Amino acid sequence: MTTAWETKPLQDVCEFINGLWKGKKPPFVRAGVIRMTNFTKDGGLDDSDIAQLDVEARQFEKRRLQLGDIILEKSGGGPRQPVGRVCLFDKNDGNFSFSNFTSAIRVRNPPELDFRYLHRFLHWTYLSGVTERMQSHSTGIRNLNGTAYKAIRIPLPCPAEQQRIVGILDEAFEGIATAKANAEKNLQNARSLLESYLEAIFTRRGDEWMDRPLSELCDIKHGFAFKSEFFTGEGDYVLLTPGNFYESGGYRDRGVKQKYYVGDIPDGFILSDLGSAARHIL
Question: Which structural domains are found in the chain, ordered by start?
Answer without folding.
Answer: 6-175 (3.90.220.20), 219-282 (no CATH)
